[in-house]
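Deliverable D4.2, example record:
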Amino acid sequence: MAGLLNPYTNTLLNIIAMIGFNLFKASPFVIEKINRLCRLLWQGKRAYEQAAANIPDKELRRTVLTLAQENNQYACELSSQIQSLGGTPAIENSYKSEPEAEMNNFGDQNVIMAFCKSSEKKIVNAYREILNEPSLYEGLRKMIQYQLNGILCAFMQLKLLSSLKIQYTNFEPVNLNPVEFSL
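Output generated by the structure prediction step:
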């Protein structure tokens, strides 16, 4: 008994207690919300990859592929967090996807942009729903927040590039003949 009270053993027990007994276990309700977000991100990833295949403009295609890559990265990070919280993460291809007919209608750039806007709304709402959870621990909250900021930034880049492309195609250059100045 006296050995348990010495400073070395007591410090060691504190360290073990901090490591082993300080695991945060999220409620199944929160874990399900995060899993739902993972599924949305993976569905978005697949759809963005299919949409990018139909975009002739190189810069716009790269931006959509960047969005797909971010979705995949964030879904993988969330999946790891779910597992560390004691939950069972969703597997990338285990969800029911959208009907193939809907996913193959990406022939027009306007349809692609409308899909991206709809997808953005769903994903942002899912992130905000998780961030509104009072039981979310601070480390996970920070990760969710930086992911949301990254997604919003990627969508903003897509919108800006798309609007520039539309303005550029509607722009009619003025015939600027060289003007001679005489002094």
